Amino acid sequence: MNRDHIEGGIRNLRGRAKTAAGAVLGRPSPQVEGAIDQVAGAAQVAYGRARDTAEDYVRDGRHLAHEARHRAQDARERAHELYDEVEQRGRDLYEQAGERSRHYRRRAERHGRALAARADDNRLATLAIVGAVAFGLGLLMRRDR
C-alpha cells in the first residue's frame, strides 16, 4: 500500500460525504463535486495499485536477475570443476596407457628373448620348422596351381 492508495481512498470517502450531504441538503453543486472527488479518488487508488504492481515487477525482476546471475556463477564454477576432473582423468588415462605399454613391451621382450633362446638351444628343429614354413608359403604363393 502506498501514498496514492491512502490519499485516493480518503478522497473517495470525502466525495461520498459531499454527495450525501448535497443530496440531503438538496444542493446539486456539492453532489457534482462529490461525484468528481469519488471518481478522482477511485482513479488515484487504481493508480496506486498499478504503481504497487509495477514496483512488485521491478522487485521481482531484480530478484530474478540476481538469481540468474547466481545460477550462472554456479554453472560456471561447476563447468570449471568438470573441466578439471576431465583433465585429471585424461592425465590418469595417459599415465595408465604409458604404464601398460611399457609393461607389454617388457613382456614381449622377455617372450622374444625366451623364444630366441629356445630356438638357439634347438637349432636343428628351428631350421626344420623355418624351412617347412618357407616351403609351405612357397607352395601357397605359386602362380601355376
Beta-sheet strand percentage? under 5%
Q: What value does the Rg take, in angstroms?
A: 49 Å
Count all strands and give the number. Answer: 0
| Distance linking N and C termini | 107 Å
Helices and strands, in order, run as HHH
Backbone shape: rod-shaped
**What portion of residues is helical?**
over 70%
Average pLDDT metric: 91
Organism: Methylobacterium symbioticum
Pfam family, one: CsbD
Protein name: CsbD-like domain-containing protein
Family: Belongs to the UPF0337 (CsbD) family.
Characterization of the model:
The chain is an all-alpha fold. The protein has one domain. Helix content is 93%, strand content 0%. It is built from 3 helices and no strands. Helix 1 packs antiparallel against helix 2. The longest helix has 94 residues. It is rod-shaped and about 145 Å long. The model has no long low-confidence stretch (mean pLDDT 91). It comes from Methylobacterium symbioticum. Pfam families: CsbD. This is CsbD-like domain-containing protein. Keywords: Membrane, Transmembrane, Transmembrane helix.
